[in-house]
Every structure is written in C-alpha cells, then in structure tokens.
Amino acid sequence: MASKDAHTPKSRGLPRFLPGAPDPEQNPNPGNPEWQPGLTPPRSFLPTVCLPPGLEYLSQLDLIIIHQQVELLGMILGTETSNKYEIKNGLGQRIYFAVEESICFNRTFCSTLRSCTLRITDNSGREVITVNRPLRCNSCWCPCYLQELEIQVPPGTVVGYVAQKWDPFQPKFTIQNANKEDILKIVGPCSTCGCFGDVDFEVKTMNEKLTIGKISKYWSGFVNDVFTNADNFGIHVPADLDVTVKAAMIGACFLFDFMFFEHSLAGL
Description:
The protein is of the alpha+beta class and 268 residues long. The chain is 13% helix and 29% strand. A hairpin with a 5-residue loop joins strand 2 and strand 3. The longest helix is centred in the last third of the chain and has 19 residues. One of its GO terms (molecular function) is phospholipid scramblase activity.
C-alpha cells in the first residue's frame, strides 16, 4: 500500500533485502551500520526451501502488524483476561489470529509474568504456530532465570527460542534456532514508556554491526485506517527472511507486550 504521509506503517519500515546481493557481513559502508538496500541476510537465516504449512503467505511480508484486542469487561473490572491478537499485513488484512491459553490463577497472581501458551491460527482456523511461555523472572537483579519463549512451527515441532539476556540498562534478547544457538540479537531502548512516541526494539546481527529490522510498539496517538486505539505493534523485516525467524519475532512481540506494555497507559 502506497504511503500518503510520513505516519503510515509502510514509511516506518526499513528497506528490504534484495536477492543475489552481497553478504551483509561485508558492509560496503562500514561507517553506517544500518541496513542498506541491496544487502541480503546471512545464509544462516535465509528462507528454507520447504515452508512449514500455513506460513506460505508469511514468506511474502516485510511488514507484520499485530493488534491486541482489548477486553472491555476486563478493563472495567480491573481483572486480567486472556490476551487476543489480530496479526495483519501492511494493508490491514487479517492473516492470523492469536489467543492466549492460561489459567485464571496465573493471570491473577502472576500477572504479566504468568506462564501461558499462545496459539496462532490462520483464517481457516488451522493452528500454524504455537508459542510457549514458562513462568520466569523479570528482573535485572536476577540474571539466572530470565524470560524465554519456545516457538513451534508447525505445532509440536520446535524451531526456535526467544531468550532474554541479562543487562542492567537495556532490554536485550536473542533469537535462537532449535539447537539454542544464537542467530539474531534484539536490543530495546533504555526507556520503554512510549508516552509520546514509538518504542523500537532493533533486530541486529550477533556482532551488532548490522540492523536488519525492528519490532515497534506504536504510540497510542498514532491512528490511521489500519489501527484502532489499542496496543499496536509493527514488525519490519526483510521479505526473504526465514519464515521460522519471522514466527520467532512474532513471539518476541507478544513477550514485549507482556513485559513492558501490559499495564502501560500508552496502550489504553
């Protein structure tokens, strides 16, 4: 969808990688570590030949929009309800729907730290991605038991993880493959309040020399024909990124919502 002004989701994206271009580790402009047009991702996370069932359409996207559905009854009563998300393309068309499965006890007493399972289905109701979140700590003073997600694509087959890394100043995470080997790094800002602007989590190569995308929490004042006034996220990635890594980034987006924005006034 063509951008009409500076505030449309497309203009927030980064240039996409082009097939057949040089290796990004050989950055022709070392003074600028940002993603440059004409670069391709490292081979370790290029698309696989056989796509997991249900993720064929995901392989074509360089912008994924995640819109949280707000439960009005839960807001009125002040109770925790199971999270629900619509996952859309850049045109605002729904491609997946995610529902949290968790028990009331966990939602009430563990709040945003609760263990849960997020089941992502396509428009036909087929489950295509499963995200498992165990009960973990969320404190910079407890570095040994930090947040982690398990990504299954298709359900029952583990393809990756999102793991929080200890840092006293910035939110830091890694995307790992099925063998728990780090393949990408996610670095957030020092402050995630997002009161008057977007909050960007940059997706980088492990050496942090190249930024290949970002996960953004959009400011609640940002409204257009795609969004309503609720928690909205955008995942900007190369179109030819491996779909399992895109699935892991969707899972990371859910984790950031739980950790940083669940009780934020910016999402109301």
